[in-house]
Design a protein that fits this description.
The protein has 141 residues and is mainly beta. It has no helices and twelve strands. 0% of the residues lie in helices and 46% in strands. The protein has a seven-stranded mixed β-sheet, with no helix packed on it. β6 and β7 form a beta hairpin.
Length: 141
């Protein structure tokens, strides 16, 4: 079964890397996802599971922006790939992949995360903004 590790609020001024790992007996994929929010990085490494994003206390990564919904989105893993899903976004969600431009993600859409870039929850992504996270998908050696 999956074990749950909760990541609540990043501490201001912290540069530590937190690891969120959900164990699964069939964890064969080595692809990992790094999410950075307000200067704090998380390495996401799970076979099947999800990471909840939003302002609500039940979220794994809690945003401070009032433009972010309580349960705004989820990061899930399916068939060895990471996907970004929109749940209750009222102000929209925008993904700017490095080298690919920006797209608006609609409620109910499932977008694969490839390479690296910025995601704006409730706002156009801007580095350092309360509603923006940076992501990077990679395969460690």
């Amino acid at each position: 079964m999956n074990s749950e590790v909760r990541y609540l609020r990043p501490s201001r001024g912290s540069s530590e890397v937190d690891t969120v790992e959900v164990e699964h007996p069939d964890n064969t994929s080595r692809e990992q996802l790094v999410i950075e929010y307000q200067g704090v990085q998380q390495v996401i490494n799970f076979a099947d599971g999800e990471l909840l994003l939003g302002r609500g206390e039940k979220c794994d990564l809690i945003f401070t922006s009032q433009l972010t919904s309580r349960l705004h989105a989820r990061v899930v893993r399916s068939n060895a790939r990471f996907f970004f899903l929109i749940d209750e976004s009222r102000n929209g969600t925008f993904l700017r992949a490095d080298g690919l431009g920006m797209v608006r993600i609609q409620r109910g859409e499932r977008v694969p995360l490839i390479g690296s870039g910025l995601i704006g929850l409730g706002e156009v992504p801007k580095a350092g903004s309360e509603g923006t996270l940076r992501f990077k998908v990679y395969r460690p050696e």
